[in-house]
Amino acid sequence: MKQNYSIFTLVRNALNYHQDWQEAWRSPAPKPEYDVIVIGGGGHGLATAYYLAKEHGITNVAVLEKGWLGGGNTGRNTTIVRSNYLWDESAHLYEHSLKLFEGLTQDLNYNVMFSQRGLMNLAHTQHDMQALRRRVYAIQLNGIDSEILTPEQIKEMVPILDCSATARYPIMGASLQRRGGVARHDAVAWGFARKADERGVDILQNTEVTGFRIENGVVKGVETTRGPIGAKKVGIVVAGHSGVLAGMAGFRLPVESHPLQALVSEPIKPILNTVVMSPQVHVYVSQSDKGELVLGAGIDAYTSYAQVGSPFIIENQLNALTDLFPCFGRLRMLRQWGGIVDTCPDASPIIGKTPVENLFINCGWGTGGFKATPGSGNVFAHTIARGEPHPLAVPFALDRFTSGYLIDEHGAAGVAH
Amino acid sequence: MPEAYNRRSALQHFGLKAAAAQSPADARVFIGEAAHRAIVNVRGNPGDPAFLQAVKAVTGADLPVKPNTTSQAGEFRLLWLGPTEYWVTAPAGSEEKLAAELRQAFTGQHAAVIDVSESRTIITLSGPDAREVLARGCSLDLHPRVFGPGQCAQTGLAKANVLIDQRDATSYDIYVLKSFSDYLWQWFGLVHRDFTAAIRAD
Amino acid sequence: MLLISCPYCGPRDEHEFSYGHEAHIARPTLEQQQTMSDAEWADYLFMRKNPKGVHFERWVHSRGCRQWFNVARHTVTHEIIKVYPMGEPAPNLEQK
Amino acid sequence: MSAQKNRLATGGRIDRSRPVRFTFDGKAYYGYQGDSLASALLANGVTLVGRSFKYHRPRGIVSAGAEEPNALIEVGTGNRREPNTRAPQIELYDGLTTASQNRWPSLDFDLGAVNSCLSRFFPSGFYYKTFKWPKDGWLFYEKFIRRMAGLGTGSTEADPDRYDKVYGHCDVMVVGGGPAGIAAALAAGRAGARVVLVDEQSELGGSLLSERDRSIDGKPAMDWVAAAEAELAAMPEVKVLTRTTAFAYLDANMLSCVERITDHIGPNASGPRQRLWRIRAREVILATGSIERPLVYSDNDRPGCMLASAGRTYVNRYGTAPGQRVVILTNNDTAYQTALDFAAAGVSVAAVVDLRANPQGALVQATRDKGIEVIANSAITHVKGAKQVKEVDVMSLSADGKSVTGGVRHIYCDTVLSSGGWQPTVHLHSQTRAKVVWNEELHAFVPGPVMPGQNNVSVGAAKGVFGLADCLAEGHEAGAEAARRFGFTNAAGSAAGAEAEPAAEPLRPMWIVPSDKPVGQGGKHFVDYQNDVTAADVMLAHREGYLSVEHLKRYTTMGMATDQGKTSNVNALAIMAGLRGMNIPEVGTTTFRPPYTPVTFGVFAGPDKGDFLDPIRKTPIHQWHADHGAAFECVGQWHRAWYYPKAGESMHDAVNREVKATRDSVGIVDASTLGKIDIQGPDAAWFLNMVYTNAWTKLEPGKCRYGFMCGEDGMVFDDGVTSRIAENHFHMTTTTGGAARVLSWLEEWHQCEWPDRKVYFTSVTEQWAVFALNGPNSRKVLEKVVSGIDLSEEAFPFMSWRDCEVAGVKARIFRISFTGALSFEVNVPPSYALHVWRALMSAGEEFNITPYGTEALHVLRAEKGFVIVGQETDGTMTPQDLGFEWIIGKAKPDFIGRRSHLRSDTARPDRKHLVGLLTENPQEVLPEGAQIVEHVKDKPPMTMIGHVTSSYWSPNANRSIAMAVIKNGRNRMGQTVYLPYDGKVVAARIAKTDFLQDGAAANA
Ligand SMILES: Cc1cc2nc3c(=O)[nH]c(=O)nc-3n(C[C@H](O)[C@H](O)[C@H](O)COP(=O)(O)OP(=O)(O)OC[C@H]3O[C@@H](n4cnc5c(N)ncnc54)[C@H](O)[C@@H]3O)c2cc1C
Ligand SMILES: NC(=O)c1ccc[n+]([C@@H]2O[C@H](COP(=O)([O-])OP(=O)(O)OC[C@H]3O[C@@H](n4cnc5c(N)ncnc54)[C@H](O)[C@@H]3O)[C@@H](O)[C@H]2O)c1
Ligand SMILES: Cc1cc2nc3c(=O)[nH]c(=O)nc-3n(C[C@H](O)[C@H](O)[C@H](O)COP(=O)(O)O)c2cc1C
Ligand SMILES: [Zn+2]
């Protein structure tokens, strides 16, 4: 068992100059073989390993991470968590995740700072309003909290928004998910890593998978920069690199990797207490606990594995932001970065089997998978452990691209984060 | 056709005449509208001598086959738009005749003629600071070492798509879709705050 | 911001262009369509190479001459290695 | 107002004849023209200027430049209040109002400072371990944490200033106007290249501004700078931008820079406040200099602890002593220059404490010669004084340098200057994703090989070359070489010369300066001042397994403050390397990201505020609509007349009136925004066969046909009427929103897939203004103004078009209808649009002709069940789903999307179908988007079978009408379904979509 984290242990350790804290996770040497290898030490991979151990009793597990754990999109997202998705399949999956988020701090004994401060989606045109109503009504009937706000209610919640009717894109209304909000992205990865490690999972950082050992269509292990490692089952959870890994295993995916950029302002005292998203003008913003405004926009159009994008996206985004929030004009950009997101044609993830036996894949979360971290890990662990998709994952199988049963969250869901 | 006064230019409602009268004398950039110029869109294969000849026969000008260049003969000014796409421009009012003549000249060829005069207006920009003004919204390098009279380019200007045709060392014709012309005119108004600008109505 | 050399107009800023998608994906002929499985059709429709390295892709000079063309671009460095006309096969980019 | 107690009598680049008044925390002070806020505060003896982020520790000024971690100041008030501004970079102007931040109630007495006392309980990452109880308690704790964090306070009022944006181009871009950069710009400029030189400071000179007695080419260095500046100004192709920071190095040699135009003048200045430059260069010369590293010694954050080079800058450049009595702590020779300059300026240097065992370099010797004590092989083990340094403790170092021994010397002083060596400013180089490499001699990272496609070279201190003569030579060579490469062959002149510096002895790396207590148990060894990260925190991260520098950074937040670790990153990773027993380069750096220094959001937006956020497209008669009271609707970028309320009318009233008038008599709508594409060529019909689902070959000239376009995935993506003008000539219409998309779609297929097909596409959307006359009297109206054609049904049947004149204007009329009523779509040249519209209005007067907007248009088409792409469809509907089975060309071999229709899910007969919905209560108008269930439950979840796509009050059917997509809907005709929304449940019956027949019947 790991040392417990609590106010009491904190005080006790403080008295001893914090000399006695244990390492959050080990840095073990790879074993020759594991029951399950999870490729990708992002939030989803670590959660998968954790739930494999916790819910399926499979502890002879390794998570292979080419860099530092949590350094992929998990470490670079705008941390928005919500479950207000249009289609039933998505709503159920993301709500499953949101529910897990609600108990995650306690489950992991690690404060992931899940702040359910409410999340607003603005509508600026008649067309936006129609789409917004459709979504809200669907979400409500799926038993998920969602409501429609009038411009007056919006102004009251976020007084610094420009709600004037003469704005280029006047605010006509918004949907609000009160249970939505933000969480500390790093803490999610670290919390899962620590607890997975506690249950015996080997987290192997700086271990890049360079190939698969496949015999007669069945996966037997992986090649890595630290040598070959055998495995009975392998799960790929590498987000932006999914195409690369699929290529190594000899199949293709309907996935393209694109840069998605984000930025933070300098920290300031609390000024924005709600997450505000505007799909029409392509900006979304929240304020972190440290005080920075955390901002995101849309993806860059081209495929890329460089974690940078083009500046005009940032210009448009800040143009939109300072129009929505005229008082933000004098704040400053502190840092700007990009991640590589794995986009699917229907903006929904792929979870399930691959053409290679015992090789499973979980990808395609694109611009919006942080919120899904616990849910995705949870259903993927089930899928790997049982060799059959978790009921929530069934609609998200790869074969939907053959049948045409897509779950198109593009048009309908408005914004993708 | 009805009386000419019933014909309105895209920027007429801004009252350019009155504004021009109030313009500063020491202006370093001038802006105006060249309305109603005839613009005929011509499509065809520049590798086909018959096509080139037909254009020359009607306009007297050589087709500007080199990308982003223009040619001129008398009243006709020809602009390169794409490898198979050109504009033949001419004074206001001549578009129907011009289009008909071109169409006639292309008989038997795979070429297309369509009048697009009504879709665009031209904002004229000139003066020693004109290039500076364009740099506020256009990412093209218009430095004389790179771009000059005889060249034209389709590109973005602010948030509108335009065609820029450089007329002489310091003047540009900016072709813009009429639906964007209010926007672009007002955008120049924004930029002009930092220049000494005059409106030219002629 | 990428600097893309339109084969006609020369180097222009990325924002004048629109990205298409992977190049050299041939549309199945009618005969092929009539015999191919749904899975094969899905392969044409959705499956992508998405390489980490040189990507053959198509772009259109949408704010310029409206022409489509192919580009070989490195997806890690963003270096544009070659621009070549539509219809031309992917160049062989063996190390020089 | 007190005298400037630390101001030196002479020296510096300030203008003592021009006093400048400013305030700090409400108190008024004077400085001089040429001062920075930092120098003016120091001159006035103000050392306490702020509180740190986490512990609210009292803090003073650390640096004299962009790297400042501590002195973050709120500038301005009200709507111009700007938090977190770096004091050394604020230029003084008369009336400048400034305040400290992150303190309450006052800087001197800050309640938040209890954090400092409790700091032991707040190590790195403490929040991950606590605040977990009760389960939903975080929202409560968070409030307090958020309030304690966050440094300055943002204004809640709109920013009143304006900003500018511009593009730039050059052959050679030089970043940094120190000796290396100036030399580069001169050489390239003389050769004839187009050059841009930017420097973030108010004047050129770089580090020369801080020098006392250097000379270049035999004259005082700043005279050389002035001459160079004049020479550059005289070159027409050279642009020098001071107060301009190159903050981002982007793909393909594009640099984003921000020019501060009026920040140094104050709010009364005219013109834009700042300008964003996006400069594309053929070659970039990075002459960005270097930044001094502080030493990590115990209590090194006391106000009065400063970088040695900064102290020197204050004395030499600003004529200000940072304090009255100074102790210098160093591990290298450069800090001795500070000691010498202080001595020259008459500022008392109590001692130089050198970590090296036996420093004997020339500068050391010179310092000793001045009578300044050099205490070698020693460390500062404590700094005393809470809000101002009072005294330091000095002890000897043990042989291995890991601890201290012997007795303690107390040295009275008010300022401690430290130098831990120099780190080249590799930020821009690194932003290109090029590597940096560790230089064992300099103990610093220097630029590695550049990235392909990014033509740049680092020179001077930015490359780790510190000799002035070398900097000048390197800069010159780089400038000349770049110019040469681009074919500029004028003489570049020769490099300026300077005397060599005295030889320096090696630096002694010592990443933690030991104290008499173990690190973390006595005073605090700050690494990252602003975010309060100490050496002990780095050790804690190590202990807890956050070993990667990236984990170290995120766990401790080191390097994540507004200074981005300019003074702290190398120290932190070197400490981590030591703990891990690794080499520094093995540990590596964190990723350098833009911006180099924080950049105002407003400048990215530039002037494009309000209506300029996105262009508004207007139709040719927009003004008429506005003059007649139209409300407008955004459709894409277009503003379209939505409805025309008369005095006292609600929207509902107006729309009913418009709809009714149109069905009863005649209505007119401005449909100019419809997309129009001219298609010509022998393969035009073949092409239409491929892009539309129905067949086009047999359409005769003069006729029109409606069609759907699908994506290759089989889903509807646009629709419209296309007319055959001549055998090889078609006129296509598209939806308003789809116009551009459809044209590129056609071009893409043509150019990429079927280039041999002979066809040309040209947009003619704006060549025509379109006015649709609808209603039984539309023919009568048109007859009055049309000439050249016979409008009778026989002569001009439905789904055909004719050329003619309307009100004397050349026109083309299409007999197509989007209302189901008799209809003529009149196309005229936009320049005559107003004339024609007015003529139609007067012709229609006797028939009560009624202009209608998009809302009435929607109702009118819905009354007949016509679909709108984007409303009835959402990218998941096939033509078959919409009930247009007949529109699929069965006989046609191929079209885009065909194969997808055969996929198992797409071919299912029970997909969602478009159907009509009639509410049980005819008065009840459903909201669009309402979801449909078969079985109502007490509470959710309920299984949904579809949703309402369109819904209106129909004055003609005299009831509510709606369209919906419902699973297997066409096979459920007559079934009653339920719509739970807004706390109620409405029942409705599935029906056909022609509401004027079926709806009216249902009502009867
Ligand atoms: C800028 C930005 C903003 C976003 N905003 C939001 C948001 O607000 N809300 C939201 O819900 N989602 C958001 N997302 C999406 C979200 O971040 C991702 O969907 C999610 O984090 C994916 O987690 P992951 O664990 O699947 O992937 P990652 O965290 O990317 O983990 C994949 C890991 O696989 C490793 N890997 C790759 N190849 C190999 C190999 N060969 N061998 C070993 N390891 C390998 C990578 O190094 C990486 O660590 C955003 C994304 C970005 C980039
Ligand atoms: N160890 C040493 O002896 C030592 C250390 C430091 C400096 N020096 C001296 O410093 C000089 C180095 O000259 P140099 O020309 O290489 O550097 P410099 O420091 O003189 O000039 C660099 C300039 O670049 C500016 N700058 C940095 N980043 C910028 C950005 N992103 N945008 C705009 N401006 C930016 C800085 O403000 C500065 O003005 C020499 O005279 C050398 O002797 C010596
Ligand atoms: C929610 C969030 C908040 C962040 N806040 C800060 C911050 O306050 N300061 C900072 O320097 N970086 C901040 N970052 C950005 C990181 O420094 C870093 O740029 C990002 O994790 C991407 O990693 P990379 O830049 O190392 O590639 C933040 C990132 C995220 C996702
Ligand atoms: Zn081009």
UniProtKB/TrEMBL annotation, chain A:
One of its GO terms (biological process) is tetrahydrofolate metabolic process. Residues 36-80 form the Rhodanese domain. It is found in: Cytoplasm. Its EC number is 1.5.3.24. One of its GO terms (molecular function) is sarcosine oxidase activity. It holds the Pfam family DAO. Its cofactor is FMN; FAD. Gene3D superfamilies: D-Amino Acid Oxidase, subunit A, domain 2, FAD/NAD(P)-binding domain. This is Sarcosine oxidase subunit beta. It comes from Dongia mobilis. Keywords: Cytoplasm, FAD, Flavoprotein, FMN, Nucleotide-binding, Oxidoreductase. It is an enzyme of class 1 (oxidoreductase).
UniProtKB/TrEMBL annotation, chain B:
Pfam families: SoxG (PF04268). InterPro entries: SoxG, TrmE/GcvT-like. This is Sarcosine oxidase subunit gamma.
From TrEMBL, chain C:
Signal peptide: none annotated. GO terms for molecular function: sarcosine oxidase activity. It holds the Pfam family SoxD. InterPro entries: SoxD, SoxD_sf. GO terms for biological process: tetrahydrofolate metabolic process. Coiled coil: none annotated. This is Sarcosine oxidase subunit delta.
UniProtKB/TrEMBL annotation, chain D:
SUPFAM superfamilies: Aminomethyltransferase beta-barrel domain, FAD/NAD(P)-binding domain, Folate-binding domain. Residues 171-431 form the FAD/NAD(P)-binding domain. The keyword Oxidoreductase applies. The keyword DNA repair does not apply. It comes from the Bacteria. Residues 523-606 form the SoxA A3 domain. Residues 912-995 form the Aminomethyltransferase C-terminal domain. One of its GO terms (molecular function) is sarcosine oxidase activity. Pfam families: Fer2_4, GCV_T, GCV_T_C, Pyr_redox_2, SO_alpha_A3. GO terms for biological process: tetrahydrofolate metabolic process. Keywords: Oxidoreductase. Gene3D superfamilies: 2Fe-2S iron-sulphur cluster binding domain, sarcosine oxidase, alpha subunit, N-terminal domain (3.10.20.440), BFD-like [2Fe-2S]-binding domain (1.10.10.1100), FAD/NAD(P)-binding domain (3.50.50.60), Probable tRNA modification gtpase trme, domain 1 (3.30.1360.120). Residues 621-892 form the GCVT N-terminal domain. Belongs to the GcvT family. This is Sarcosine oxidase subunit alpha. It comes from Dongia mobilis. The lineage of its organism: Bacteria, Pseudomonadati, Pseudomonadota, Alphaproteobacteria, Rhodospirillales.
